[in-house]
Amino acid sequence: MIQYGRQSINEDDVAAVAEVLRGDWLTTGPTVTAFEDALAQISGATRCVSVTSGTAALHVAYAAAGVGQGDEVVTTPMTFVATASSAVALGARITFVDVEDDTANIDPAAVEAVVTDDTKVIAGVDYAGHPIEVDALRPVADRVGALLLEDAAHSIGSTYRGRPVGSLADLTTFSFFPTKNMTSAEGGAVATLDADLGQRAHEFHFIGLVRDRDRMRYPDEGPWHQEVHEYGLNYRLPDVLAALGLSQLKRLELFKQRRAEVFARYQAGLADLEGVRLPVQREHVDPIWHLYPLRVLEGRRREVFDKLRANGVGAQVNYMPVYWHPMFEDLGYQRGMCPNAEEFYSQEISLPMHAELTDDQVDHVIDAVRVAVTG
């Protein structure tokens, strides 16, 4: 079976992890700092806080933004559930808006139509690695005093109008799950250009601990003293995993290049195939492709999906609209809210996309798609 996504691990990665295992710091040590500094450099952020997962990154980012009971978060349904559920965990009220027909990214016009002065955060997702339209979303957020969050779980290494993802929104979240564009096994990060947001993110992921004497309520307690002023959780990424992430970052451009080659091979091999719709890339973005989302038309998605699996192609579907999950259904959300997203879901199949794919494997996938669609 050709896997739809997988990690790319080499001996340098293994050596980097082994070096930390033989050292003094397994967690909260210098490798975490080095990883966060490298992330900031690549993303164009001024502060990066590494965390234990992409879901944790979202939770931390919403907490840093001050999201609390009853605050509105406007987001897309075409994403993994954590984009919304991590805000719900803080008491937020979610407003889902529809996606663009071509990219499946959050539609700025749909956001404009629903935001109010009560909107706390607008959260877009770089679906498949294609960045959201930040320049259209920014004035909408500024008009109502909301923060802009970019869920970049798919897109570390992408650029938008020449600017790296991580430097575009008030808060950006990354995921380093093994199927993503680089990995730390499990892990994620929050990136920001705002010092206050960065500090709030750091403290929330560090159990809320305050170690700055000037901020302490009881600074003369002793040199061991630390205080918790606001609720936080232990979302700290250990040095062992940071070592893997740091090593992987050195090959991010190579991963991006190979994924671009795979994407281009799919585009060329499927260009003349009727009954499908291929993904698009806008001229002003340079994405790192996390997914290759093929759209199968005429209600044949399940049929084609089953045929691909039977032919050794580990296809996947990304994603069921978030509000279709029973958790959100039980909160009163109903199907039919976002027709573009629901149509996209009904058609989408993610073909294998990762840096370890060979040209022969890509060609096998192309042939399998053509047989499944025309057969």
Automatic annotation (TrEMBL):
<dbReference type="Pfam" id="PF01041">
    <property type="entry name" value="DegT_DnrJ_EryC1"/>
</dbReference>
<comment type="similarity">
    <text>Belongs to the DegT/DnrJ/EryC1 family.</text>
</comment>
<dbReference type="GO" id="GO:0008483">
    <property type="term" value="F:transaminase activity"/>
</dbReference>
<keyword id="KW-0167">Capsid protein</keyword>
<dbReference type="InterPro" id="IPR015422">
    <property type="entry name" value="PyrdxlP-dep_Trfase_small"/>
</dbReference>
<keyword id="KW-0946">Virion</keyword>
<dbReference type="InterPro" id="IPR015421">
    <property type="entry name" value="PyrdxlP-dep_Trfase_major"/>
</dbReference>
<dbReference type="GO" id="GO:0000271">
    <property type="term" value="P:polysaccharide biosynthetic process"/>
</dbReference>
<dbReference type="InterPro" id="IPR015424">
    <property type="entry name" value="PyrdxlP-dep_Trfase"/>
</dbReference>
<feature type="modified residue" description="N6-(pyridoxal phosphate)lysine">
    <location>
        <position position="180"/>
    </location>
</feature>
<protein>
    <submittedName>
        <fullName>Spore coat protein</fullName>
    </submittedName>
</protein>
<keyword id="KW-0663">Pyridoxal phosphate</keyword>
<dbReference type="InterPro" id="IPR000653">
    <property type="entry name" value="DegT/StrS_aminotransferase"/>
</dbReference>
<feature type="active site" description="Proton acceptor">
    <location>
        <position position="180"/>
    </location>
</feature>
<dbReference type="GO" id="GO:0030170">
    <property type="term" value="F:pyridoxal phosphate binding"/>
</dbReference>
